[in-house]
Amino acid sequence: MALIGYARVSTRDQKLGLQDDALSRAGCEKVFCDVSSGAKSDRPQLAAALEYLRPDDVLVVWRLDRLGRSLAHLIEVVEALRDRGVGFRSVTENLDTTTAGGMLIFQIFGAIAEFERNLIRDRTNAGLAAARARGRCGGRRRSLSDGQIKLAAELASSPSVTISEVCETFNISSRTYYRHIHPSVTLSEVGDRP
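and the corresponding structure tokens:
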């Protein structure tokens, strides 16, 4: 079993010394360090640490917020580690998923995160229902209004006007042209022809 450390600071002005010292005292034989905001998903040293870990190893961090961008992300990472047979330990919070008590605490975190996701989904659905009741509907705006569709169809009916010219005039793609002006033509027939 190897203890592998991961440390992260948000900016180059911050120093990794405190985390390095804590991880060394915890017995880590190797430490991977990132200088990156916690909100960023691209953390190359975290990816390297996760790649380096083997079954029965333990990933050690100074604090929980050094690993996850959010509670949900933290739980996702630790569950992925568990699936690979890798433990997780946080020095400051004294959390260790290799123990029964540590795993229980982590499962409670997971339940809280699931509860939070359900609340967000319920609020989103309630907001969408309220907007629909007020006559609003979501989604992208239409490329062409009914009047523009009628004008474009009239323009397209002229033998001297090409489809490309109609598209350029209304600032639309050929797919949009066929969808609105010639809906009987399927998009697979259209491809990317002008």
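(Above: one complete record from the training split.) The first helix runs from residue 17 to 25.
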